[in-house]
Amino acid sequence: MASLFTDLLGWVVIATFLAGAGVEYVRRHRVGGEAGALATLRRRLDGFETPPERTLATAGWVLFAAFWLALFPHFAFTQKSYVEGVLSLLAVPASLYAGWLLWTGRDSLLVLSRAVAAMGIVYFPFESVEPLKRGLVLVVTEQTGWAMAQLGYHPTRVTGPILGYHNAYRFVTAEGHGLVFEIVLACTGLGSMAIFAGLIAAVRAPLGRKLRGLAVSIPTIWLLNIVRTTFIGIAFGNQYLQLFVDEVLFLFGSSDPYMVSFFLSDRVISQVLAVVALVGITYLVVRELPELVTVIEDVLYMVTNEEYDLLESLDLPREPVRADGGGSDADER
After folding, report:
1. Is 187 a residue of the active site?
2. Which is the most buried residue in 65, 98, 121, 214, by most CB within 10 A?
3. Domain boundaries, the chain
């Protein structure tokens, strides 16, 4: 992550959303005499005029807005990733709007709130625990090198200047200039996998369908990510995209002409195609988990201020889906 501050803020966001999900669970489930303390807690929580899970989740969205605002300079100026920079900046008012809608009664957003917490639980351990990060980065590095070799490219594997692992490849141009392509955590596809894992975990649906949703999304993202890193490595290492050099250098605030192929392959082509791929994967997952339609409809409402009924449009069964994004309590696992 960008800094210790954003790491800590991220954990606070996760904890706040988790607290809201925990309170919601206690209030939603009837507990027997053998769990008298939980029963007492549930009665106390039911006495609040404003549901406490709504209050906690709203606070989570406000903190989430602050989190994205803190990340914006890192994406826009440090990484020079304008797509991620713009998205992080847009996430600030979007998070505040989600919090406001939830506070004023759109309780279906509790599903998205739970999803954000689950996403963080998947992502942040790899960000914070060095052995996990190192292992994931090195696996992606190994597979990227293998894929490049299948296409006839054999750069030298070296120690990366950023992370210090054996996680980079050194190319040599025809002029003898050395170029180092390093795999970092952002190159592993972890962020996209965390998004789908979080969404799938957040909805209330039978375990079997949740596992099918994971089977559709996670391997697909992993494979496409290896294709992405292979493409970027080859394009950058062999300087295949030296197009509009002056314009690209100006746009990304760089004076190094050797970086043009990297900027175009990674910051432009790969990130745009990633958005397209995520839309396609979302459609495939929704076919397995119609409950996710609740989240998509909430997002569309936030963007357009109009209600949508996607179940009919996508020809999906209506019965399993509730206002809070789950099936009947009997279906839950």
Report:
1. yes
2. 98
3. 1-107, 130-333
